[in-house]
């Protein structure tokens, strides 16, 4: 409101100055009145001094508003992104979202602050000056009106083309940001494959595309400004000529003509400002559209208004005829008619070929996705009817690829429970076999782990992730083969920590290596999204089905029966080739 008042007051004083000048000139050339000249001079000085003070206040207030709007918009976008489901992030690249929160928000900032204030100020100035000159000489005003449509037509033409180009520049800049984020985030892969020059080329190509589009926009914008300026000044000169005719005819005084000419320049300046604002507005519309597309996106996972708080659970999980397909491909079912009952405290291993639906099935439990058909229940509660916070607070996840945040070891473990005490923190680290190696770090628990935990080994990252899960103390535990990529020593430490973590908890383990799940209470075997086998390790070996074939491929390469399919032939040949290579290496090592 204060900024609005200062804008209105500044515009009024901007008109008061030229209006008062006509009396100054008439006092000299017509009345020859020295006292009147002195008084008008003092009035003008007061007007311009007040106007300068108001402009100072306005500039500060608008700068404050701009920074606050930009901060609020980024916070609003980030908060909204946190509430969106995994499917949204699966369909978008990280670099694109980062570009939206940085580049696009910065583009919008100018529009919602300085551009709006300038538009309001120039609108008041334009119409105020127009009213004064109409009252002064309507003939001259009509002459001026005849020239305005030409300027406006050119402004509209250029503005539409600039809008399309500006949107293209922002889109291409988002693509360049994505390439940058991927190259930096995957720097280890880039260097291991010696693809530095390839990534430089990829980023260069993206930047050059952005540059080409930006230059095209700049050329158009550069042609726009001078064209409008030429037309504006040509209009002023024409008005000078017509106004001179009015003075010679006795319909205007010299002071009125001078005021008319100043106000005409003011109007021309306003039109020029409008053309610049129009250009800026067109540039920002594309960015604004993309920002509000994100804000208008609704999460696939919606919490019902009447959702109930999920009390502390025992951990019984029930899948009732569950089927799942992604929304963008509703005809392809990842899971089909899954019926599965997991008892409290049970350790269930999920086994199956790649793409069988193991990860998808696990993602339904914390309600990262909702089943397309059927329902998932915990202790008899349909997950669609409970509050997400109360559900996910009772579930712990230890993924195969551990993600640590770039802060300290302490901060990463406390992510499991932010209000945990130092004693609870240390106890969780000890249970995860992490306390000893943490004390050996340069700053102990306050050691920074680097982006994604890059300063730690794979086994150390996994143990911190397990400590984080232990500190959370969930009733339900979801594990995605947390030891598959570790060396033998680290695997032993992590496996021991996992056994402590799974004790007295309902645990579901996605198993890639069958050696890790022989001690599971039951094994569920998935194939093509269907539950094809369910039982203990021993029972499934006796059945001699898919699980038994997978087991023989990994452990009984020499004794496995002849495969029945071409896929199994290829797998078994690969296994025998590996075995021969290992035997050869053993002989070479012995020699």
Key terms:
591 residues; alpha/beta; ABC transporter transmembrane region fold; 6-stranded mixed sheet; 4-stranded antiparallel sheet; 64% helix; 9% strand; elongated
Number of helices: 18
Helical coverage, percent range: 55-70%
Oligomer state of the chains in this structure: single chain
The percentage of residues in β strands lies in: 5-15%
CATH superfamily of the domain at 68-296: ABC transporter type 1, transmembrane domain
In N-to-C order, the SSE pattern is HHHHHHHHEEEHEEHEHHHHEHEEEHHH
Number of strands: 10
Q: Main beta sheet: strand number and arrangement?
A: 6 strands, mixed
Radius of gyration from the CA trace? 36 Å
Helix/strand/pairing class, anyone?
alpha/beta
N-C termini distance: 88 Å
| Unreliable parts | 557-577, 584-591
Largest beta sheet: strand ordering: 6-7-8-3-9-10
Mean pLDDT: 79
CATH class of the domain at 68-296 reads Mainly Alpha
CATH architecture of the domain at 68-296: Up-down Bundle
User: And the CATH topology of the domain at 68-296?
Assistant: ABC transporter transmembrane region fold
The geometry reads as elongated
């Amino acid at each position: 409101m204060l900024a609005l008042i200062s804008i209105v007051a500044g515009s009024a004083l901007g008109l008061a100055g030229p209006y008062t000048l006509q009396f100054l000139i008439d006092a000299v050339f017509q009345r020859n009145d020295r006292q009147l000249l002195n008084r008008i001079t003092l009035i003008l000085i007061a007007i311009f001094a007040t106007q300068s003070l108001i402009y100072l206040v306005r500039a500060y207030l608008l700068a404050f508003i701009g920074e606050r709007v930009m901060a609020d918009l980024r916070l609003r976008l980030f908060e909204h992104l946190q509430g969106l489901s995994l499917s949204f992030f699966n369909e978008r690249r990280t670099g694109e979202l980062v570009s939206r929160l940085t580049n696009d928000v910065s583009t919008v900032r100018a529009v919602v602050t300085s551009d709006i204030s300038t538009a309001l100020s120039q609108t008041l100035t334009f119409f105020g000056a127009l009213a004064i000159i109409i009252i002064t000489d309507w003939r001259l005003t009509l002459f001026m009106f005849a020239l305005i449509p030409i300027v406006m037509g050119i402004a509209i033409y250029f503005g539409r083309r600039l809008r399309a180009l500006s949107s293209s520049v922002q889109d291409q800049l988002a693509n360049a940001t994505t390439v940058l984020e991927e190259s930096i985030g995957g720097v280890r892969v880039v260097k291991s494959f010696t693809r530095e020059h390839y990534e430089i080329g990829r980023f260069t190509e993206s930047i050059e595309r952005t540059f080409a589009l930006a230059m095209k926009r700049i050329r158009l914008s550069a042609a726009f400004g001078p064209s409008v300026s030429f037309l504006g000044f040509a209009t002023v000169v024409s008005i000078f000529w017509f106004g001179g005719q009015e003075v010679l005819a006795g319909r205007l005084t010299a002071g009125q003509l001078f005021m008319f000419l100043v106000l005409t320049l003011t109007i021309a300046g306003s039109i020029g400002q409008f053309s610049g604002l129009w250009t800026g507005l067109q540039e920002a519309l594309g960015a604004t559209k993309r920002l509000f597309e994100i804000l208008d996106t609704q999460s696939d996972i919606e919490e019902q208004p009447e959702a109930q708080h999920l009390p502390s659970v025992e951990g019984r999980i029930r899948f009732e005829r569950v089927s799942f397909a992604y929304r963008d491909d509703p005809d392809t079912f990842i899971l089909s008619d899954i019926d599965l009952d997991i008892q409290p405290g049970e350790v269930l291993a999920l086994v199956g070929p790649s793409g069988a639906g193991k990860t998808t099935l696990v993602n339904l439990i914390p309600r990262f996705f909702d089943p397309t058909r059927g329902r998932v229940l915990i202790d008899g509660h349909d997950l669609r009817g409970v509050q997400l916070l109360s559900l996910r607070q009772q579930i712990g996840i230890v993924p195969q690829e551990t993600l640590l945040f770039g802060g300290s070891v302490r901060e990463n473990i406390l992510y499991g429970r932010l209000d945990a005490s130092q004693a609870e923190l240390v106890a969780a680290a000890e249970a995860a076999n992490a306390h000893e190696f943490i004390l050996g770090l340069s700053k102990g628990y306050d050691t920074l782990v680097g982006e994604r935990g890059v300063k730690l080994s794979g086994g150390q990252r996994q143990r911190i992730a397990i400590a984080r899960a232990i500190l959370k103390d969930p009733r339900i535990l979801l594990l995605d083969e947390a030891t598959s990529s570790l060396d033998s020593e680290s695997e032993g430490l992590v496996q021991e920590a996992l056994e402590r973590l799974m004790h007295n908890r309902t645990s579901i383990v996605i198993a890639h290596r069958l050696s890790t799940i022989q001690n599971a209470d039951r094994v569920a075997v998935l194939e093509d999204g269907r539950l094809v086998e369910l039982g203990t390790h021993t029972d499934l070996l006796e059945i001699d089905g898919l699980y038994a074939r997978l087991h023989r491929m990994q452990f009984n390469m020499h004794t496995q029966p002849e495969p029945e399919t071409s896929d199994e032939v290829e797998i078994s040949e690969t296994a025998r080739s590996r075995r021969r290579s290992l035997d050869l290496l053993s002989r070479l090592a012995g020699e």
